[in-house]
Each structure stands twice: as C-alpha cells, then as structure tokens.
Design goal:
This protein has 83 residues and is mainly α. The protein has five helices and no strands. The longest helix has 15 residues.
C-alpha cells in the first residue's frame, strides 16, 4: 500500500488554499523544515496529530480508511472465533 502522508497534507492544503507559511506559523515550526517534512513519505505520529489539529482534518482517519480498503481488497471476510 502506498500512502504518502506528506502529499496528502499538501493536497489538502492546496484544495483549501492554505499556505505552508500559514501552517508553519500555526505549528510554531520553521517554514523550511515544514517544507522538507511535507516532501517526505512519512513523519512522526506526533507531527501528524499536530497538523491534523491545526488544519482541522483527521489525516489518520484517511490513512486508516485506505488501510482498511487495502486489507479488505484481497481478503475473504473471516469471522474470528474470539470476537
């Protein structure tokens, strides 16, 4: 499964006309470092949470939905005996 969290955040910002400088200010984070961070394929959970709160969008839910789709795509639904 390919999911680029930095690209997902960048796409969201573009769609909602939010500049990186604005997000950097909301996070009290260096704009240059934020730019490098958003170009990465991954980032810390703490940073994802901070960005999600700042932008008021749950990027973890988006990633989780894609993960669920990926899991269910090729699997037959199995009922676990302990559930």
């Amino acid at each position: 499964m390919e999911y680029n969290i930095g690209q997902a955040i960048t796409d969201y910002m573009r769609e909602n006309k939010i500049r990186q400088a604005m997000l950097a200010k909301m996070l009290n984070y260096d704009p240059g470092n934020l730019n490098r961070l958003l170009k990465k394929n991954n980032m810390s959970l703490d940073m994802i949470l901070r960005i999600s709160v700042a932008l008021k969008f749950n990027f973890l839910r988006e990633a989780s939905c894609r993960l669920t789709e990926e899991i269910m795509k090729d699997e037959v639904y199995v009922v676990h005996p302990f559930l």
